[in-house]
Amino acid sequence: MNEDAQKLNALLDFDLLKKLVVGIGEVSEITGIPTRKIRYWEEKGAIQSETNTEGSTRRYNYLNVKKMLLIQEMIEEGFTLDAAIKKVEKRMVTLNEAFRKLADTVPDTEDNE
C-alpha cells in the first residue's frame, strides 16, 4: 500500500476519528489558524469545543477541526465569516445525511459472524 493510500485509510478509521480530540494549540499548529481566531469562531457558534468548563483548555474533535479548515478555506476564497459558517453548516448536514444513508446500506458485521 502506498503512502497516499495509507493517509486516506486514516480518514476511514472511525475508531481513530472518535478518539481524535486535540487542544486549541495543536489545532492552531496543524491548521495554521491562530488560536485567537479559533476562540472567536467558537464565540460565534461556528465550532464547539469538547471542554466547556471555565479555565480549562479548549479541545476539538475531528468534525470541528474539519469545520475550521472549511471555514478558513471559504474565507480565503472571499466569503464573509457569517456566509462561510452558513455554507459549512449546510455542507455538514448534507454530508451527515449522505453518510447516514450509506451506513444503512452496509451490513452489520456482527450479524455475519
TrEMBL record:
Q: Where in the numbering of this chain does the HTH merR-type domain appear? A: 24-90
- Membrane-crossing residue ranges in chain numbering: none
Record the organism: Oceanobacillus sojae
Q: What is this protein called?
A: Transcriptional regulator
GO MF, one term, reads: DNA-binding transcription factor activity
* Record bears the keyword Transcription: yes
| Domain of life (superkingdom) | Bacteria
Q: Which UniProt keywords apply?
A: DNA-binding, Repressor, Transcription, Transcription regulation
Which PANTHER family has this protein been placed in?
A: MERR-FAMILY TRANSCRIPTIONAL REGULATOR, REDOX-CYCLING DRUG-SENSING TRANSCRIPTIONAL ACTIVATOR SOXR
**InterPro entries noted in UniProt:** DNA-bd_dom_put_sf, MerR-type_HTH_dom, MerR_fam
The record's Gene3D superfamilies line, in alphabetical order, gives: 1.10.1660.10
